[in-house]
Amino acid sequence: MVTRWLLLLLAMLALSSCDKPLFAPAPRDAHPALWVVRDADTTIYLFGTVHVLEPGIRWLNGDVRKAFDASDQLVLEITGVSGAQMSRIVATLALDKGPRLSQRFPPAELAKIRAAIEQGGGNPEITDRLAPWYLALNLSVEALDRARLKPAAGVESVLTGDAGAHGKPVAGLETAEQQFGYFAGLSQPAQDALLVRTVDRIPQLPADARAAAEAWSRGDADKLGALVNAELKDSPELAEKLLHARNRRWADWIKARMATPGRIFVAVGAGHLAGAGSLQQELAARGFKVTRIQ
Predict the structure, then answer these.
(1) Residues 45, 48, 50, 51: is their CA dihedral positive or negative?
(2) Across the chain, which distance is largest between two alpha carbons, in Å?
(3) How far apart are CA 129 and CA 97, in angstroms?
(4) Nearest to residue 34, comparing CAs of 263, 270, 278?
(5) DSSP-derived 3-state class of residue 57
(6) The pTM is what?
(7) Alpha-carbon torsion angle 205, 33, 150, 232, nearest 10
C-alpha cells in the first residue's frame, strides 16, 4: 500500500489550511532528526517534516531551534497556497478529462468510493468528474481531520509562522502547480489504483499517520525509511515521480546553492530524508558530506 507515503506528501494541503486545534493535550517533547551540509562559507540544514501532527508536540527546540534561528532563509517544498491558487489548480489539473468515475470502476469498487466520499461530506454526483488522485488526497485529509490530526500543528505551518514572526524569508523548491502536477501526471491506472487503495485504507489512515509521526518524533530515520520503502515497493511509478526524481532535482539545487555563501534551513517531507534513494544519498553521490547533528 502507498497510503503511508501519501501522508508524507500532504504539505501542499497543509499549507493551504489554517484550522485551529480543537483541543490542547499535555505537551510532550520530540527530537526529530536534523542533518547539515557545509563548506567554508555555506551551511545548509536538512530537516524532515511531518505535515499533520497532534497538537502539543514540542519539537522546535534544541539543535533544531539553534539551526533554524541561525539560518538566513527557510526553504520548503512549496510556500503557502492561497484559495484562489487552489481554485486554479483544481480547474486546470483536478477536473478529469477522461471517463467519469462512475464509468471507470466496477460496481463494487464504485460503491466503496461513493461511500467514502459521502462519509467525508462530499456529493458523489458532484465529484464524479474529479481526478482520482485529487479525490485520494482529499479523502485522506478528511480522514485525518476527523481523527483530530491537524495541518495547523504540522511542521510546515509552525516553521512558516515562526519565520514570518522574525522576518525570515521563505522560499519554495517547487510551486504548488508542480506538486499537484506530479499526481496529475500519473498514468490513469496508477491514479485509479491510488484512489482504490486510499479508500480501502481510510480506517487505518490515522494510525498510519501516528506511526510515521512517532518514528519522526524519535528521530528514527531507519524506521521511517522502512515504512516509506515498504509502502512504495508495489508502486514504482509513484516512487519515481514523487520521491526519487524529486530527490535528484533537489540534490542538484543544493549543489548549485552551495556556491553561494549563507545559511539556509531546508525542510522537506521526512520520507525524502530516509531509506534508499534519500536526499542524503543523492548528495553523497555528488561529492558532499552529510552529517547528522540531531
Answers:
(1) positive
(2) 62
(3) 8
(4) 270
(5) strand
(6) 0.86
(7) -30
Quote the crossing angle between the two packed helices 132-146 and 188-201, to the nearest 10°. 20
pLDDT value at residue 19: 43
Grid coordinates of 32: 526529530
Nearby residues of 237 by Cβ (< 8 Å), 6 or more positions away: 186, 187, 190
CA dihedral over 183, 185, 186, 189, signed as positive or negative: positive
What CA–CA distance (Å, rounded) separates 136 from 202?
Answer: 10
- Please, what sign has the CA dihedral across residues 117, 123, 125, 126? negative
Q: Which three cell numbers stand for residue 242?
A: 514523487
Q: Residue 60: which region, alpha, beta or left (left: phi > 0; alpha: psi -120 to 50)? A: beta
* Amino acid present at 210: R
Residue identified by cell 563548506 is: 39
For 208-242, give the secondary structure using H, E and C.
HHHHHHHHHHCCCHHHHHHHHHHHHCCCHHHHHHH
**Contacts for 176 with CB less than 8 Å, ≥ 6 apart:** 12, 78, 81, 85, 86, 89
What is the structure's pLDDT at 173?
96
pLDDT per 10-residue tile (average), the chain, 294 residues: 43 41 60 96 95 83 96 93 76 82 91 92 86 90 81 81 95 91 90 91 87 90 77 79 94 97 96 90 97 96
The string of DSSP codes covering 141-186 is: HHHHHHTT-BGGGSHHHHHHHHHHHTT--EEESS-HHHHHHHHHTS
Q: Rounded distance, CA 132 to CA 94, Å?
A: 8
Extended beta strands in the chain, E state: 28-29, 34-38, 42-49, 57-58, 73-76, 170-172, 262-269, 291-292
CA atoms within 13 A on the CB side of 263: 9
